[in-house]
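Batch 3, record 17
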Amino acid sequence: MTAVRTPALSPVTRPPISPPSLLRASTAIVWRNLLHIRRMPEMLLDVTVQSVMFVLLFAYVFGGAIAVEGSNYREFLLPGIMVQTMVFSSAIVAMGLTNDLQKGFVDRFKSLPVPRPAVLVGRSISSLIHSSIGVVVMGLTGLLIGWRIRNGVVDGVLGFLLLLLFGFALIWLGIWVGSLMRTVEAVQGFMFTVMFPLTFVANTFAPTETMPAWLRTIAEWNPVSAVTQACRELWGNGPPAGPDAAWPLQNAVAVSVAWSLIFMAVFAPLAVSAFRRRSRD
Amino acid sequence: MTAAPAVEAVELVKHFGQTRAVDGVSFVVPTGTVLGLLGPNGAGKTTLVRMLTTLSVPTGGTGRVAGYDILREPTQVRRSMGLTGQAATVDEILTGRENLKLIGSLYGLPKSHVREATERLFDRFDLTEAADRMAKTYSGGMRRRLDLAVSLLAAPPILFLDEPTTGLDPQSRSGLWAVLRELVDEGTTLVLTTQYLEEADHLADEIVVVDHGKVIAAGTPTQLKDQAGQASVVVTLTNAADLDDAARLMRSHSPEVHVERGSRRLTARAAGLGDMTRIAAVFESSGIELDDLGLARPSLDDVFLHLTGHRAEAEAADGTTEQTPEGVTP
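Prediction for the assembled complex:
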């Protein structure tokens, strides 16, 4: 009796495998990430309840004490707080990615015949959607308390596109940090330490004119300030930067686009190589 | 013998900084067989599997899966195999069904196949009732089964399992073993890592023992047991009064006979089945009544101790290992 097993390479009839395109794989991952948000609506607290809370806190608690020349504080506030929300999407992407790396989802993914960038692309898109929900919630809250887009549809849309572009650029920073760090807690600690000064030492919540000279210089060269100023101008929510303001604020829209491109050029290669290194071991 | 090997490791090396996690490991897994990679925690088993499944890039050497080179043809390798990792990598927030749907679309499988295969796999793995519950509500055993179902969605001819039963209760473990046996019967090639000697003994056709990143022994479970020491014939008497006579009888065939009075048991060193049948014949003609007579081989645990000087399983550290009798019962 020869107990040789049949050398069948295909045990059962295999279904046709057609490795998905980058787009299809990324879409599947976005679907999965959005399901996570639907199952755990508390994940959205940061961009829903908190957004409303921050808008109201700043508008009514601090607003009265902050004088804005040529505009009212609520008009001034909304673009700033929206930019802050977009900046925080880099923290969201970083935490999501670290979680996926930690839980083994990235490993599972890597064992499949799928274009590897899909996990990053999927993450970026779902984080942008996440942040955009926040922007919409803020916009609606803003409309209720008197904020308006006053420069027409085209400029209005351009403002939102600029927000998305800046958010997308900073997402690469998030991917970089997420690939370097080992735990979600570490990522959270690091990102929030960076994000708070970045979004507060700027023209987001208060005019820079009243800051000490050295701080004003830092604030006005802060990329966040350029994007905020650009949105204010595009939406007609504030006067153009004064003659004594730093150069980036005088050319806010162009400078915002430039910053976004620079961030992408710097952080995207760092992020991709860190992610690749992390996923080699 | 002529069939192409399903999996080959060729001098695989992986260094993490100064640590040589895998230090030149080679083996061949013929199609349709089960290879057990046996070793303690930190022996390099997981790293080996990660390299072969293209998750990790080797520092040196290479490997082939279904004939495809893991370095040059990773996409082909990924299409040919399934992987069930050490930590069950199911998505806890998704339901069981959604997990399969996600993996199905990442394989680019037709939706109709995914639907049909999901029903079939859930039925087989007893998950149908839990199909629409979030995976975080599953027990450890259910998660492993879901993980396995995910790995089987594309019906891969080769399946890698990294410690598939670690942390499972004995019942879930034997359930999973049964499933793995079925897969093997269908022709799937399995490469599984385990710390459990019993598991390797139970499932594997061929065992590769790994310690400190190196292969320290390889062979069938029987070969490895033979290597660890000799077999023995174990005789249990019906009446304690016959003990001295029985010992005398056995000494005439084997120089070393050990008598345990309490359990009415005699153990004699034996070269193999021949010795056992001879001793059986002697007792047959002597008229001494026996409860049991059998050949005991050293367990894989003894093998491991013999090869490495330390035990493979933490649980076995208290020295509760026993010789497993296999053979005739009168």
